[in-house]
Amino acid sequence: MTTPLKALALVCTLTPSPAESSSQLMATQVLDALAEHGVTGEAVRVVDHDVKPGVLVDMGEGDEWPAIRAKLLAADILVVATPTWVGHLSSVCARVLERLDGELSETDDEGRLQTYGKVAVAAVVGNEDGAHKITADLFQALNDVGFTVSAQGATYWNGEAMHGTDYKDLDETPEAVASTTKALAANAVHLARLLKGSNYPGE
């Protein structure tokens, strides 16, 4: 029987709901591609929640990160979707990475980080170059806090420099983006099922 998997997409747009978002669109496309492999998932637009600054898993009264974290811990695949701002990931995405730093203090009964055995992938959109650097920054940070990155674990779209078209405004998804997203999904699911069946060794 195929191992059931769950995915969580953290959408790091600066735009609150219900406004349209290119990052939200790309995250949805990744979740749809994962669903073709039997993965159930949901997206959380982080800016809609009061995620406090800090490096703990719970920053106290009013902090809404613990509820998001509960969904993350229940998922097998984490999708981080971010826009490109002046060549860098968004401030919301930086806040997510800061909060994930708290996972370094959280271990299971065998001394493993609770993020071990979870796969992380990236989705980046923007109108300027920067997707490769953002992906590199994301993968370094996510690996540091225990996630495993799958082969070809990023999909992205960058428009030409100095123009104003957003990803969400395209008439159709470019074939290169669609095929990359499809490969991302297949590889992430394959790796997540392997890790779910045989996690990393404990202490």
UniProtKB/TrEMBL annotation:
InterPro entries: Flavoprotein-like_sf, FMN_Rdtase-like_dom. It comes from the Bacteria. One of its GO terms (molecular function) is oxidoreductase activity. Transmembrane segments: none annotated. Residues 17-153 form the NADPH-dependent FMN reductase-like domain. This is Flavodoxin.
